[in-house]
Amino acid sequence: MGELVSPKQAARAMGVSESSLKRWCDRGLLSAVRTPGGHRRLAVAEVLRFVRERGRELVDAELLGLPATTTGAKSLPLSRARETLREALVSGRESVCRQVILDLHLAGHRISTICDSVISETFHDIGDAWSCGEADVYQERRSCEICLRVLHELERLVPTPGRMAPVAIGGTLTGDNYQLPTTMASVVLRESGWNATSLGCNLPAANIRNAIVETQPALVWISVSHVFDEALLLRETQEVYETAIAQRSGLAIGGRALTPELRSQISCGACCDTMQHLESFAATLHLASTREPESGQ
């Protein structure tokens, strides 16, 4: 997908005149950049922000590199979207998966809500079907790959964080190879204005600690979808926590493998059961940081 489009493309995508779109730019409702030749260009993420916030409808989404049937005006109810997404993922219909998730986003749903109420619940359903012999393991793996691609596309549609945006990093520890939750965390935080980066999966604590020291994040997240060794997990999370505290970073830990017994033994700033919990914790950290007095005051 191209990152920049011309005013003509953006106007046609929204079904409005080019002159109307240029007036919106002149009034500051839409941000545009200038090419070396002086021509206006609009970031696709900025066009979609305008569509979402103004409750408009796309009439030619392909001009923005989106599925042709994407409109954002008539997204499915969350329960129906989950059902449609499950059927599309199991059958490998990636275009339908893209349409469902992008339509929900354009209709104004927070990415955290899409992740919690649609994507996560869909994978619970697929996991149940697999355990009952109603789905094959390859279908579950293929579903993960499709969702990762759609999430990365969704991430490109979120406005780029500003230069002063707070930094967040995260990933999974030793033995945990589940990419989807840590990718969701990254996209959710970027929509909330964080400069968020997933470090990936199966990382020893020492690597995450090095990243904390180097990047000085305000927030660190650890996703726990699989526990390779409970004692190792507790030791590694403690090491990460100590480094996070030393660097004044908030630590959030969550995931389906985080049992009540493990939760009671883990040190962290917050145990987040959902992406919406993570988003709320991040908002609390951001608010606290903006209220901190400068040294010497």
Physical arrangement of strands within the biggest beta sheet: 5-4-6-7-8
In terms of DSSP E residues, the strand content is 5-15%
Helix fraction bin? 40-55%
The biggest sheet, with number of strands, parallel, antiparallel or mixed sense and barrel status, is: 5 strands, parallel
Multimerization state = single chain
Uncertain ranges: 293-297
Count of individual helical segments: 12
**Average pLDDT number:** 91
Task: Give the overall shape, derived from the CA principal axes.
Answer: globular
Rounded radius of gyration (Å): 21 Å
Account of the 3D structure:
A five-stranded parallel β-sheet has the order 5-4-6-7-8, sandwiched between helices. Strands 1-3-2 form a three-stranded antiparallel β-sheet. The chain starts with a strand and ends in a 6-residue tail after the last helix. The protein is of the alpha/beta class and 297 residues long. It has helices at residues 7-14, 18-26, 44-54, 78-91, 94-106, 111-131, 137-156, 179-191, 205-215, 230-246, 260-265, 275-291, and strands at residues 4-5, 33-34, 40-43, 167-173, 195-203, 219-223, 250-254, 270-271. Mean pLDDT is 91; it is low at 293-297. It is globular.
